[in-house]
Amino acid sequence: MKLTYLGTGAAEGWPALFCNCKNCQEAARLGGRNIRTRSQSLINTDLLIDLPPDTYYHKLMSGIDFSAVKYLFVTHWHMDHFYPQELTVRGSIYSHRMTSPELDIYCAAGTKALFDQVSWEANKETMETLHFHILKPFEPVHPGDYTVTPLPANHMHELKDGQPFIYLIEHQGQRILYAHDTGIFYPEVWDFLEKSGHINLVSLDGTCGTHQVGPESGHMGLPDDREVRARLIESGVCDDSTRFILNHFSHNGGMLYDEMIRRAGNDFTVSYDGMEIVI
Fold first, then answer.
1. DSSP code string of the chain
2. Less CB within 10 Å around the terminal CB: N or C of the chain?
3. How many CA atoms within 13 Å lie on the side-chain side of 275?
């Protein structure tokens, strides 16, 4: 599998749109890998994770053919992960000669409900190409030759019916655990993962930088990530061959790219916009 990190920032981006803090000013001054757009990733060429407001910018910067995406998995419906209006211009007079005219969208019921609120902007031709599939925790789905299992994320605590997900993605014998916008995993998620078999790549939430925030936060910092990494290795589902990635960073975490590299050491690769990893 090839995993491309299109955006690696938290909700506000980095530098944040309306912010003049020292972390944002320094990121703007340094540029390069310190610039982080809203979170989005692509697996191979056809499975997209999340649809943030920065998707169009990701197309401009990467040259990726987003019309080739066949499967969209939405982690949750916070605005930095799902900008539903973007789907209203997929097809019809807005998008010609698409590589894959049909799009299967996998998400929670609340995510679909948010799309329904804005779908009046889409015409009938566009709506007929969008196929929603409502996910249930721990029940795998099988788009194409992938197997994707949605697991409850420790996040979105303000909404009892929010149902955010992290994903275990399998393809041709390889497994990726994509775990962002989550705190330390719920006990039932640990039970599932520790019986899941070998995981080749684990992508963990780095929102809080080097701060330890514990299981109630809805996000993680580097000490929490180390705790998760240690338990996955101890359980036997990860080993020395597993790639561990830190991703989804906020200016409130305080660590610019080079400093985060130093703090992460050999345990983690620190993501940046445009980073590609092949497993």
1. -EEEEEE-B-TTTBTTTT---HHHHHHHHH-GGG-B-B-EEEETTTEEE-B-TTHHHHHHHH---GGG--EEE----STTTB-GGGGGGSSGGG--S-SS--EEEEE-HHHHHHHHHHGGGS-HHHHTTEEEEE--TT--B--TTEEEEEEE-S--TT-TT---EEEEEEETTEEEEEE-S--SPPHHHHHHHTTS---SEEEEE-TTTT----TTSSS--HHHHHHHHHHHHHHTS--TT-EEEEE-B-GGG---HHHHHHHHTTT-EEP-TTEEEE-
2. C
3. 24
Question: How many whole angstroms separate alpha carbon 137 and alpha carbon 10?
Answer: 24
User: What tokens appear for 147 in the block?
Assistant: 């197997």
Q: Are strands 103-107 and 130-134 parallel, antiparallel or unpaired?
A: parallel
Summarised one tens digit per residue, pLDDT across range 76-103 is 999 999 999 999 999 999 999 999 999 9
pLDDT tens-place string over residues 25-53: 999 999 999 999 999 999 999 999 999 99
How far apart, in Å, are the Cα atoms of 118 and each of 85, 86, 88, 98, 236? 6, 10, 8, 23, 45
Identify the pLDDT of residue 15. Answer: 98
Q: What is the pLDDT of residues 113-156, one digit of tens each?
A: 999 998 888 889 999 999 999 999 999 999 999 999 999 999 87
